[in-house]
Amino acid sequence: MGNGEAPEAGPDTIPSSRGPDPESVAWTTDLAADGPERDRAVAALHDLLVRAARREGERRRGSIPDAVAADLDDLARQAADDAVVAILRKLPTYRGQSRFTTWAWKFAVYEISVALRRETWRGRPIALAESDWDRLVDGRPLDPVDEAEARELVAAVRTSVAEAMTPHQRDVFVALIVEQVPIDVVADRLGSTRNATYKTLHDARARLRADLAARGWPAEPARGGR
Known about the structure:
Blueprint: H1 22-31, H2 36-59, H3 66-69, H4 72-90, H5 100-121, H6 144-164, H7 167-178, H8 183-190, H9 194-214
Helix pairs in contact: 2-4, 2-5, 4-5, 6-9, 7-9, 8-9
C-alpha cells in the first residue's frame, strides 16, 4: 500500500494510456480487500485525509472566524471521516488519471471547505426580508444612463421574484443570488441537499426569465449560486 503522502501541490497526472501507477493500484487493491488488510488501508487513508483537511483548514484560517479556527482539528477529523466514506463509495469510479492520493486528497479538501462554510454561517441569520438588492447592480463604474437602466432591471427582477416564484423558490433565490450564501449552507438550513437546492434555483430562474420576458426585459443579472 502507499505511504500515505500526497503531492504538496498541483495535479500529479498519469498518462491515461498507462493506467494507474503501482502505488495507486496498491491503494485501490487494499481498500477493496476484506479483513485486516482493508482495515489497515482505511486507517492509512483516514490519516492521509486528516492531514489534507488540516492543511486546507490552515490555508483558510485567516478568512474564518476565530471560534471556527479554534475547532479546526475536530473539523478536519470530521471532514476526513466524511471523505473516507465518499471515497469508498466512489472507489469503482477511480480510473487512474491522477495518482490515487491526489484523487483522494480532493475529497478531503471539499469536505473541509463545506464544513468551514457551514460553521462560519452557523447561527448567522439570512436576512431575506432586508436583502440588499443593490448588490445585483454590476460593481463596475457605470455612466448615469447605464446605472439607471441597471437599477430598473433590478427593480423588475425584485418584482418578478415576489410575484412569479413560489415561496420556497423565492427563499432559495434570494439566499443564493442576493445574499450570496453558500449553497451547502442554504441546503443545510432547508434540510435539503445541494442537488435539490440547485434544482430549485434552476426552476426559480426559469420562472424569472419567463416573467421578465413577459415584462419586456431580456434576462436576470448574471450572478450564480456557489
